[in-house]
């Protein structure tokens, strides 16, 4: 799947932009804070209904405005077309539409427009607590397994109710109600555990192979799944921990305590891996995610590589570019602050690419692909050198790049819904 047209209105520091993207590699370069990551995040928003960063919907509205609007026109690998719009207005909430139809639940959209992102923020998967790795695993599996997502939502609800009861427990009769929640947690927990265990088993060999390629076969890594349910049935686990749960007033056992264990050379990656090794592992993990989602959905996700050179030497970046330039991967959006460095590596890889420059929220296309130029010539859209220079000057003055000539859709007026997603175990 790839996004042909991307429109942004009042999104973060971007006042307005209408972009025509190519199927393969699209690069966005500019100084820190220029807005490169905001373009990447807009594409993620249209896939996952939320920012890839730790920002609320309200924080994604451009300063001084009351709403933002994102719109994407997609072409699937089988040729069908999809249009997704996402809008948020202060006081009204978020509205997400696919092909003009508003979703009743935002969670129903997850997996419809598959995407995989690699960004500097991924470092938390190595450095932070286990709940961050669980959240990533949840998002990954939910993109291609609707039953898992439903079990996850129901598990979270039952867990919240059980924890609330534990804080209020005053009589033996309430203890019987605990058994009701235990049954729900056991049933949904078993589904979650089975899916996570299978996912990590499938990820493991692909992560190891991609890491070998990126690192030049210099190190060996491993990925494992740690869960209390690996050795104990959920019913027995909850029964054995009940006294401790009552004393602590929260549920101390279950799949909400699972973890993924990452190692390099047989030792914990967090303690013994360099920053470059950790980043290489995370890229290998995300590329493995890409491969599995593409196989499960028969659809290549959009691959987003934000701040590509962060913590990686040029050799590893070049290996990565060669890897993702193959036909295995579809559309790729790359951001970097150094256009000279990025262009040199892309030119050595021999593939075609489009290049955009970003400055203070204004986006201009610096390089078109051969296919884009060919299509423009066929449709009579190619301008004379003088006309092109004039259009470029006008776009620069306006602070936008509008190659399609289309105006972005107006802000939706339908009442926004609140997300049904709960805190993930």
Q: Features of this protein?
A:
alpha/beta, 425 residues, single chain, 21% strand
Ends apart, CA distance between termini: 30 Å
Compute the average pLDDT: 87
Return the string of H and E elements. Answer: EEEHEEEEEHHHHEHHEEHHEHEHEEHH
Unreliable stretches, pLDDT < 50, 5 or more residues? 383-424
Biggest sheet, open or closed, and with what strands and sense?
A: 6 strands, antiparallel
Q: What structural category characterises the helix and strand content?
A: alpha/beta
Tell me the Rg in angstroms.
Answer: 23 Å
Describe the structure in your own words.
With 425 residues, the chain is α/β, with parallel strands linked by helices. The chain contains 13 helices and 15 strands. The chain has helices at 36-48, 124-127, 130-142, 146-168, 172-215, 234-240, 242-248, 269-272, 275-297, 314-324, 339-349, 370-378, 385-398, and strands spanning 2-11, 14-20, 25-29, 67-75, 81-89, 93-98, 101-102, 115-118, 221-226, 259-264, 267-268, 302-305, 332-336, 353-359, 362-367. The protein has a 6-stranded antiparallel β-sheet, covered by helices on one side. α5 (172-215) crosses α9 (275-297). The longest helix has 44 residues, at 172-215. The protein is globular and about 80 Å long. The relative contact order is 0.19.
List the helices and strands and how they pair.
Elements: E1 2-11, E2 14-20, E3 25-29, H1 36-48, E4 67-75, E5 81-89, E6 93-98, E7 101-102, E8 115-118, H2 124-127, H3 130-142, H4 146-168, H5 172-215, E9 221-226, H6 234-240, H7 242-248, E10 259-264, E11 267-268, H8 269-272, H9 275-297, E12 302-305, H10 314-324, E13 332-336, H11 339-349, E14 353-359, E15 362-367, H12 370-378, H13 385-398
Parallel strand pairs: 3-13, 3-14, 8-12, 12-13
Antiparallel strand pairs: 1-2, 1-4, 4-5, 5-6, 6-7, 9-10, 10-11, 14-15
């Amino acid at each position: 799947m790839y996004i042909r047209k991307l429109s942004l209105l009042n999104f973060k520091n971007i006042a307005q932009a209408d972009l025509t993207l190519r199927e393969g590699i699209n690069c966005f370069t500019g100084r820190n804070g220029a807005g490169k990551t905001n373009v990447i995040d807009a594409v993620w928003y249209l896939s996952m209904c939320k920012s890839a960063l730790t920002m609320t919907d309200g924080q994604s509205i451009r300063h001084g405005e009351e709403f933002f609007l994102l719109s994407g026109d997609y072409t699937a690998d089988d040729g069908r077309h999809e249009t997704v719009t996402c809008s948020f207005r202060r006081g009204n909430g978020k509205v997400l539409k696919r092909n003009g139809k508003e979703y009743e639940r935002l969670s129903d959209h997850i997996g419809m427009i598959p995407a995989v992102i690699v960004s500097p923020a991924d470092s938390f998967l190595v450095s932070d607590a286990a709940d961050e790795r669980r959240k990533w695993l949840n998002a990954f599996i939910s993109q291609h397994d609707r039953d898992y997502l439903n079990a996850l939502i129901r598990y979270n609800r039952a867990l919240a109710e059980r924890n609330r009861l534990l804080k209020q427990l005053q009589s033996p009769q309430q203890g019987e109600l605990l058994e009701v929640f235990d049954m729900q947690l056991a049933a949904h927990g078993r589904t979650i555990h089975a899916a996570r265990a299978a996912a990590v088993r499938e990820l493991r060999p692909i992560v190891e192979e991609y890491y070998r390629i990126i690192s030049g076969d210099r190190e060996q890594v491993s990925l494992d799944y740690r869960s209390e349910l690996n050795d104990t049935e959920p019913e027995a686990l909850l029964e054995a921990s009940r006294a401790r749960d009552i004393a602590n007033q929260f549920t101390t056992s279950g799949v909400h305590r699972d973890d993924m264990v990452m190692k390099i050379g047989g030792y914990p990656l967090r303690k013994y891996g360099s920053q470059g090794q950790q980043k290489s592992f995370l890229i290998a993990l995300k590329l493995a995610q890409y491969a599995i989602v593409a196989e499960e959905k028969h659809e290549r996700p959009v691959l987003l590589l934000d701040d590509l050179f962060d913590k990686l030497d040029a050799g590893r970046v070049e290996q990565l570019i060669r890897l993702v330039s193959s036909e295995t991967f579809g559309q790729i959006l790359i951001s970097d602050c150094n256009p000279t460095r990025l262009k040199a590596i892309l030119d050595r890889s021999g593939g075609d690419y489009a290049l955009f420059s970003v400055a203070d929220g204004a986006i201009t296309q610096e390089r078109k692909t051969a296919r884009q130029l060919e299509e423009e010539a066929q449709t009579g859209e190619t301008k004379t050198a003088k006309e092109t220079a004039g259009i470029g000057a006008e776009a620069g003055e306006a602070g936008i790049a509008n190659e399609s000539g289309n105006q972005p859709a107006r802000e939706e007026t339908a009442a926004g819904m609140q997300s049904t997603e709960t805190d993930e175990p």
